[in-house]
Design goal:
The structure is a homohexamer of 230-residue chains.
Chain A lengths: L3 E4 L6 H18 L11 E2 L6 E10 L5 H7 L6 E7 L10 H9 L4 E8 L2 H7 L3 E6 L11 E2 L3 E3 L2 E3 L4 E5 L2 E5 L4 H23 L4 H4 L3 H7 L2 E4 L5
Parallel strand pairs in A: 3-4, 4-5, 5-6
Antiparallel strand pairs in A: 2-6, 3-7, 3-10, 8-9, 10-11
Helix pairs in contact in A: 1-5
């Protein structure tokens, strides 16, 4: 792995990205055929944010945030910074100074497979972060990594320019070239769900709505009356 | 394990269940002789809920929520849906559509030893969930499990119709036939605690209030003056 | 390990402690040369508290909170109770009665490498707790431990009278005799950060502000244009 | 939970138990419809043991092995001691003295959801143990638990007298009254597997042997030629 | 994610693969610039194996080994089967029947980010496996996945045809097109290490051999005499 | 934390150290009053070693083994190298070259709260290691730490010159100045255990040998006959 910074990465169209943000992770993930999710240990530092943006990727060393400073320069308005680490680590690699810096460049969120600090300030700033940990532990600036190379972040492959969708349910990576199809599929899904939700709210059972009774019986499900064992 | 749905399970009296809800998990758990708690990795998706209800149990396959749809039909107002999985799993097996469905049947909460999704919507709906994880990861509907059989959920045995008590401190299962005795014991405990709390607030030490000084001395506790080591 | 309670421990000056509280963990930890942090699994039960106090230490047995009652008597206004356990444990060793008791003595917070319960009440009381877990699981009072001996809590050595700094980023232990120097170093750091924050907010890059371009190039970092692989 | 020792528990027939031992956990577990396994963190302290026996169950407090001493008296030749703990714990609750004691009573193995110590000696004694951890950490004898009550051990319900099957693949609990049927089903399975193994060894594909090609195609599986992406 | 089987994947030259096997994971990983390792939770089921082979990749559902049967047909002599799962899972997805089948096709090892069973038999067969867990837990055959698509396995991206190197230190993935360069770099490294090993064995310090004294001093390292604190 | 190397640390007498090695961790730990153990995640890379030695301590950065090279020079025959890391890490910081180097200086073992590699070679060399992980992941040499300062390693405080005892049950740290008393207490314990072991082997129950029946009854233990619930 030679340390490298890749410049001028492609990005999806902003309007398309906004459509994915509106879907949220759960719906977009279903629209992708249930792939692309980061592991569920990635949690938001505050609740309620729902964003999408183009991934600027960082591959950093554990306990070393040098490459985050390098990555800032590669960010454009609407980007999401995605930080992977070469070994499991929970150090607080990102705090309020870096947040100030990336916010000034229009970055809409951070996804980091490590720790974050100054979370009270970041929350007050309204800057959304999804991380593996919160930790005051500071880091050194000693060893190179890379920016805008494909990385595995929290178990998912992220290529620079992929669309990151993140909300309270987690973080999803949508390959840039599939983004249009997935947005469309997700929107169809949303349209379908509304009528389903109404039916279910009115008391119709999923068993009937989704016509599950026959396949369940065929698979061998049997119903028996409760019998007290005492 | 043959897949089966047990119908017409018995339930504790609603008034009795409400008494247990009022106690909360910590007090009811003490009243049970400190047994019956699910493991502490079961956390609420939002803070402040305190509920109790009759357990409708589900044994599901990892990554497969088919049996949750089956279970809905077995639910009555005041029930708590309790989902155990045959292998450790964090997939989001329950989301806003299932929540809409169970809410329409009067279910008061979900306890799931796996993941949950659409947590923002569930929070807005005021539907309480205690889960092992939050994850946007969707699930298939392919393999049978069972409904209303005894299950081990997060390390605790839950039989259908047992009373589930859940709040910010965790989740407790109260065997149905012991519920009356435990409610009574817990209420006695609460009554005692009020005066203790007043004493402690006024500065009386637990050492004196609980008469611990003599047993501590007998057990060999000694007091020594601090001596600086430098 | 003979069970012992050490009395009359020394404490840092209150004004000094307040200066450390104002810095917060991230800054004070940097001022210490990036040491002294407890592991990041120690999380606050509610967000926003930022306290500092003198450590009254407890070494307890897993599932046994007898020594916490003993420790209360050793607490003075402004102290932080620090509980270490002889083996990993998540039981709820501290609840609203103990909180009432320590609060009446002026204790400003609890740091416990185990579980805590009655978290809803503790939150309403405004009593801050950093713990490994939340659990309704109660404990026995059967086996002695020690009070005010040096303990390893969540991976950090804490001596009685050391200054504990805790906020949303975690928990830091500042050796009592180094507290003055660390407060001063931290305050210098804060002063420097303000101008840096302004620069970064105005769009100056950290690469330039921290003069990183030359050392990065020297370390071998190269920039290449993105080339689509398809 | 009142502390109690249940005496004169029933046991399955020894010959039946031996048939289950011969099957091993993987086969017996399949014969049970894939239920009854303890969680996979339960690992043998040495490789190669394959035993079965009647469960004498213990519910102990974390860090307290008092009830193990009580349980020894309830053991008969051919039994397996099964220890559950009221909270997660890794202390070494069982060592060479207890092993000497239970071995003198004919106990054939230990299953403990906690730690074990003196593993070198236990290995030399040829005494098999499946545990969550190895730890030299000793325990107190201070608080009661129970013997021969139903326990949840490593996520599985074990009733006294159930048949425990354990080998390098893990630990299985077979309900006593289902043991006969499961042994028979497992033996049928073994008979079938021999010819399958021969077929597979000769190069026949499982796809053909199990007639999977049609259902796979029906489920939508497609085959495409590799195309280099560069 | 549409379920697909990719056929006729490319493979590296067998002689080249053997050179990588001879290097082992630690040396090959250094030769790659310290990248490409699977997470260290991937452990061998028996010690001493050191293999390399071309990756046939599987993306499977948790608790479902249907696609492993599909993958067997795609295997050639010298291949390593690499199984990734769409959600964390420890079920025993691979046992002695599958091992018999893949062995008959010349597969030299299995890397699976899930569980494996029949480990005693697999060990007797001399079939090497690196897995996340050992578990007797069986799996269903109900839901499609894919074969020979790029997968993230235990945190590393594996493309079909990449070279897998595995030994007691873990599992490494070498991109097919970089294999030649990495083998060469590793062999140079080995040549260098031999003389270093001799020097170190003779008592020469690494401090001198690697000329570290000056950079250490420059970085600020100081030496002080021990002073007893009591 | 200023980076420092402390020279000429004191060591316990070799004969005394050998007495502690002969006791092993479980017995020595009991003799210490059940304190001083490192967490049980510290496991030997090969079974059967039982050593003791004087601790030469290292505080290293995650993923950086520079200070291990510095520490070698401080080692004398009979020492144990003890490596703590400033943040949780599993990288392979120690391999066969470092092992060759420390072995040439007479070091008898390594205790490292991180990863180790070349474990096959280390095993062939008969060099014992207790570690948190095995990992081929290599490390950089970029950031200073310290040698021979007090460290917290795997949850235990280790001061330079303390006696480390390690075997298959784990790792124990014996404060240098208490070593004599602990060796003596442990030897008394061993003497007592021999006759106890004989009694237990002959079938005497621990209940009688340790006179537990009366305290158990006093604590409230009751015996009841088994009653089948069906």
């Amino acid at each position: 792995m030679k340390p490298v910074v890749v410049t001028n990465i492609p990005r999806a169209d902003r309007q398309l990205i906004d459509r994915l943000a509106a879907l949220g992770t759960a719906t977009a993930h279903e629209a992708m055929g249930r792939s692309g999710l980061l592991k569920p240990y990635m949690r938001p530092i505050w609740s309620g944010a729902q964003v999408a943006g183009s991934a600027v990727t960082v591959l950093a060393q554990p306990g070393d945030n040098w490459m985050l400073h390098v990555a800032v320069e590669q960010c454009q308005p609407g980007d999401v910074l995605v930080v992977a680490v070469t070994a499991e680590n929970t150090d607080g690699m990102f705090g309020d100074l870096l947040a100030t810096s990336v916010k000034s460049r229009g970055v809409v969120g951070l996804v980091i497979d490590a720790g974050v600090r100054d979370v009270k300030t970041l929350t007050e700033m309204g800057f959304p972060v999804w991380s593996r940990a919160v930790s005051a532990k500071g880091t050194v600036k000693a060893t190179l990594g890379s920016v805008n190379v494909p990385v595995v972040c929290a178990g998912a492959l992220v290529k620079p320019g992929d669309v990151i969708v993140a909300d309270d349910d987690g973080v999803l990576v949508v390959p840039r070239k599939e983004a249009e199809a997935i947005a469309a599929a997700g929107e169809t899904r949303v349209a379908n769900e509304t009528s389903k939700r109404d039916m279910l709210a009115s008391g119709v059972l999923g068993l009937d709505l989704y016509k599950m009774r026959e396949p369940l019986a065929k698979a061998g499900l049997v119903y028996v009356e409760y019998k007290d064992e005492d």
